[in-house]
Amino acid sequence: xxxxxxxxxxxxxxxxxxxxxxxxxxxxxxxxxxxxxxxxxxxxxxxxxxxxxxxxxxxxxxxxxxxxxxxxxxxxxxxxxxxxxxxxxxxxxxxxxxxxxxxxxxxxxxxxxxxxxxxxxxxxxxxxxxxxxxxxxxxxxxxxxxxxxxxxxxxxxxxxxxxxxxxxxxxxxxxxxxxxxxxxxxxxxxxxxxxxxxxxxxxxxxxxxxxxxxxxxxxxxxxxxxxxxxxxxxxxxxxxxxxxxxxxxxxxxxxxxxxxxxxxxxxxxxxxxx
Length: 274
Hints:
CATH class of the largest domain: Alpha Beta
Oligomer: single chain
Structural class: alpha/beta
CATH topology of the largest domain: Rossmann fold
Number of helices: 14
Radius of gyration: 21 Å
């Protein structure tokens, strides 16, 4: 089971203009049995600096802590739904922290709710983010077969309905993400190695590009303290001088660092109690 640090992908949710994949967000879409987790690993999104936002990790850990399984019955129970709500709330807080630092994000979902994803995309673009979608596709037979082999399987009727709903949205997603949508065919018998390699190349090239959005450029500029010419001439450009000058202007870097650490510790304790 993942620890809190593994859940957030690195020891601390640090923020700053030097974060990898800054102002980039990748949406994952795919129905039951599509293999999104496998594709995330093959495309090396986390190694490129992206933070995976997914409540499933906290949810599964919470179920295990209280002795519940991932069966449909346990998940639907009162206790199971309470744990799901707690996991989603915690994930929401982690997402808010990541957005505060404009970090690179991977937002995991099925893709069946187009309106929800469009709303998220619109909000991110207003913040200055560039967005990309990786759509992990399978044929219906593959989805049904893989679902039957999962510990958290769902009825075939539901799998079929979800598969149909997701398929109906492919054209809409292509219009929303335009040329920034990669479709990975992960059906049984498909050349998944070739598909994921192409997806990795697409994401890597895109992620390494500096933000081009004017909103992003202004935010980055605002985060870089400007050197005082007088201090430069006097040789007073050390970190302590800079921190002191910023503190006089109401920017206490030490306090911000302590606040971030305190918030991180609080979220960590909450996660471990889920």
